[in-house]
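User: What would this chain look like folded?
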Amino acid sequence: MSSKTSYALSSTLSLPIPLPTSTSKSPSPIHIPLIHLGVYLTSGYTTTSSVTSALQIGYRAFDSAEWYANEAEVGDAINKFLATSSKLERKDIWFTTKLKTNYSYDATRKSIRESVKKSGLGYLDLYLLHSPYGGRQKRRECWRAVVDAVESGEVRVGGLQELLTSFPKHPPTINQIEIHPFNTQSSITKFCKENNIAIEAYAPLARSLRFSHPKIKELSKKYGCTPAQLMIRWSLQHGYITLPKSVKEKRIRENADIGRFEISDEDMGVMDGLDEKLVTDWDPTDAD
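Assistant: Here's the prediction, encoded as structure tokens.
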């Protein structure tokens, strides 16, 4: 079902808060921006430059990871931007990072502290277990560390990347998965919605692999948009938080300009029907 929302970079989603917090027995809703800039496979000046451009355009959320080795560059760009702004504060920016390896409780707590230090942002808005690998016991240990980090104030929200259809005592707030019209992940998204878990869509553009698909070209022409804008709009109308990635200012700006059109219910169904289980990076759903 399509949404009537006119999406903009200021659009947010109110998150459920199933994790315990140390600040209040009835915590206020946490609002997360719906469009994040992904910084996968970027480094050094390229990372700093793209984050700075995105902030100037109006992006307020960024998706990094310990594995990407660019937490410091993202944090530095954010802090320098905030230092020049009279209207924005740290609380206005959303920073996500992820655990590299599911090793142990203590190692996870250490990684969280190191990510806070590297980013220089004081705390992490969202911390994810990057993969389900390592076995159920390791996942439980590492997840317990995330829950404790939320309680201690180092992390605001905990989540998983590539959630399997089970979770421990404290369920995650967010599940980040590859999702786009060519890989709709219907069983996982259904599970998440039934369990009040927000969905983040990484690789929402299918890494440009299907921009020349006849139906994508046809609908892009119909709505007067780029293939990337069409696929981002599809993601948002499904209610997903979306993480498009680009290092080019023109593309970063275009990817946020999706409030001018709305995909009809009929065309949303057509795009849903393009599913071919296309995996553009990795598929860890076989983890035990």
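The chain is about 35% helix and 15% strand. If you want, I can go into more detail on any region.
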